[in-house]
């Protein structure tokens, strides 16, 4: 029996107000509402080095009818950004524990970098994270990829077309040993340009995400998937073109 497949528009890289560089208006309800208004069927919440607001956004999505994958955008030892996506909040929090243990205990300077606000699914503040979330952890790209994969995660090299904080800008190449599930490009670069500009990129699936730091940016860039259900296993199958699963970047 063949399973019925569904076209799902997914934005797999968004931030909440917990990320110091994100807008205070990026509350769990505001992000979910914006995603539904843009016609997305799936988002991932990927704050910098933490999954502290992931449960709230997942819960908010459940109530509103939007699937949300919990994730983290990790800053590696090389200061490269790598997005790790999970099916359950517990796995994302386990990765956060490892990142936190390997990060310098420097408190956030809210005046300089912005507050790091924890919220519930109603968008109410429930606390703040003390350690500075923008610091690089002492985990290499390869070790992070291995760790995230052990926890069942998908590993995506973030915004490889940016001039800073990407594996390309910071390492100068795409490390094959990291075995990324996909590379992410921004709305500013086409697939063809990426394959031309970044040696090795043509060997990987290229996806597009918004990297939204405010609700109104959610869905500014997205990837279309053909999936049986919105899970990391299905996304991996689509990225590999297995069992009729597909993905499409316009
Ligand atoms: Zn980033
Ligand atoms: Zn980001």
Structure commentary:
With 250 residues, the protein is of the alpha/beta class. It has one domain (6-248): Metal-dependent hydrolases (TIM Barrel), CATH 3.20.20. Helix content is 28%, strand content 22%. The chain has 8 helices and 11 strands. The strands form 2 sheets. It has a 9-stranded mixed sheet with strand order 9-8-7-4-3-2-1-10-11, with helices on both faces. It has a two-stranded antiparallel ribbon with strand order 5-6. A hairpin with a 5-residue loop joins β3 (67-75) and β4. α1 (28-37) crosses α2. The longest helix has 13 residues, at 89-101. The chain is globular and about 45 Å long.
Summarize the structure.
The chain is an alpha/beta fold and 250 residues long.
